[in-house]
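User: Can you recover a sequence for this backbone? Please restate the input before giving your answer.

Assistant: Of course. Working from this structure:
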């Protein structure tokens, strides 16, 4: 399977389950919780879900609504060091465990999240 085929395997429903499982953990997380918009978690959930659907071969709803992803720029306001990166990946891996997606789709998603989260690091920690 290739990345652009993931959508045809897990569909909207798979991405919905995954992203919902991720965002359920966000408000209670001491490190990440405070970074996310408490009054608009639903919107944040929708943005991540639409982005992933587009990125993994589904309809480009994200692009239509948000334009070019420019994720490094969009994450610039948030302090992302190694700890935040590791935590984000930990929450997402837990969401993947919970969503029970087919093995090959899971593997591609885990690899993508780890690489993208490292790419988004925007400060060093002491
Ligand atoms: C590394 C740790 C990360 C942190 C701390 C973080 C934090 C955040 C925060 C606080 C937001 C704003 C929520 C909102 O949309 O209102 C956001 C948005 C977003 N994040 Fe992350 N994020 C991280 C990693 C990632 C990764 C790995 C991806 C890609 C898989 C990602 C994709 C997105 C997308 C698509 C948005 C919405 C951008 C927009 O259209 O405005 N983030 N992130």
């Amino acid at each position: 399977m290739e990345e652009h085929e993931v959508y045809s395997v897990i569909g909207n429903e798979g991405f919905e389950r995954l992203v919902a499982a991720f965002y359920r953990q966000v408000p209670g997380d001491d490190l990440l919780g405070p970074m996310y918009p408490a009054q608009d978690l639903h919107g944040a959930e929708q943005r991540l879900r639409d982005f992933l659907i587009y990125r993994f071969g589904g309809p480009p709803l994200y692009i239509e609504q948000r334009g070019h992803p420019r994720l490094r720029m969009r994450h610039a306001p948030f302090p992302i060091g190694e700890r935040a990166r590791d935590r984000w990946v930990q929450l997402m891996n837990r969401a993947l465990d919970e969503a029970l997606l087919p093995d090959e789709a899971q593997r591609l998603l885990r690899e993508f999240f780890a690489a993208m989260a490292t790419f988004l690091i925007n400060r060093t920690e002491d």
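That completes the design. The domain at 3-119 is CATH 1.10.490.10 (Globin-like).
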